[in-house]
Write a structure and sequence with these properties.
Elements (H helix, E strand, L loop, with lengths): L2 H4 L8 E5 L3 H7 L4 H22 L3 E8 L7 H24 L3 E5 L7 H14 L6 E8 L1 H17 L10 H6 L11 E4 L18 E4 L9 H12 L9 H4 L1
Parallel strand pairs: 1-2, 1-5, 2-4, 3-4, 5-6
Helix pairs in contact: 2-3, 3-4, 3-8, 4-5
Bound molecules: 3-methylbut-3-enyl trihydrogen diphosphate (2 copies) and magnesium ion.
One 3-methylbut-3-enyl trihydrogen diphosphate binds next to α2.
């Protein structure tokens, strides 16, 4: 039986978040520039989006560029921004055909205008699609998002639009970039790094983590299926005892 056939279709995560890491090291192993790894990483994105759609995942969030990544050498940042524009423009027709809806989270205003334009065009074009929602985290960091949320909450409280006593978990959720997106049940990070690097701190509060040594440009839908199978063998207790779950 193939990996895909082994997946229990009744217990597929609705939302999978992925830290696509290891592009630079992958390129270095091939004796190439780091940028080459980023280009190759696009094939992995394509394969994972296809695989996720096939097994019935509803949301997939890809960490594509972090707030901290602005501190990389200018040539790498520029190349990543160019790659972003060209990839979105090249891939959107196919995504649209596959009924995928594109969204973005992060400090989108900080991206170059060409990126913003391309992104908005694709987001608008796919807005009514009802299949998989592909969320790109761009110029995103969780601390940035939480600071933003707190500023909005404080301002609403100051303007008497919000009672401090009324603030609940659901309320805070509404001030995050992911306000209309359910929390991920599964978070995957490639390349052997066991950290979350400022990604979805609030939203991952109860996610299952899956770390793999595979570098992002080598990651394919088969690897996604392996991660989902691993997820399906976990017991998610949410603070309860094992006995309470049965
Ligand atoms: C992930 O790969 C892609 C981005 C962060 C944009 P890296 O570029 O971090 O690759 P490594 O981790 O240096 O190998
Ligand atoms: C996390 O990867 C960010 C993205 C994948 C976009 P990094 O390579 O930037 O993270 P660190 O520096 O290893 O924590
Ligand atoms: Mg990295």
């Amino acid at each position: 039986m193939s990996k895909k056939e082994q997946i229990n279709t009744n217990n597929v995560p609705k939302h999978i978040a992925i830290i696509m890491d290891g592009n630079g090291r992958w390129a270095k192993q091939q004796g190439e520039d780091r940028i080459y790894g980023h280009y190759e990483g696009v094939n992995s994105v394509r394969s994972v989006v296809k695989g996720a759609g096939e097994i019935g995942v509803k949301y997939i969030t890809l960490y594509a560029f972090s707030t901290e990544n602005w501190n990389r050498p200018k040539e790498e940042v520029d190349a990543l921004m160019e790659l972003l524009v060209s990839t979105i423009s090249m891939e959107t027709p196919e995504l649209h055909k596959k009924n995928v809806r594109l969204q973005a989270i992060g400090n989108i205003d900080s991206l170059p205008p060409s990126c913003i334009d391309e992104l908005n065009e694709s987001i608008n074009m796919t807005a009514n699609n009802t299949g998989l929602t592909l969320v790109l985290a761009l110029s995103y960091s969780s601390k940035w998002e939480i600071i933003n949320a707190i500023k909005h909450i404080a301002s609403d409280a100051k303007n008497n639009e919000l009672n401090i006593e009324d603030i609940t978990e659901q309320h805070i959720q509404k001030y995050l970039c992911t306000k209309d997106i359910p929390d991920p049940e599964l978070m995957i990070r490639t390349s052997g790094e066991n950290r979350i690097s400022n990604f979805l701190l609030w939203q991952l509060a109860y996610a299952e983590f899956y770390f793999t040594e595979t570098l992002w440009p080598d990651f394919r839908e088969e690897d996604l299926f392996t991660a989902v199978l691993n997820y399906q063998n976990r017991e998610r207790r949410f603070g309860k005892t094992s006995e309470q779950l049965t």
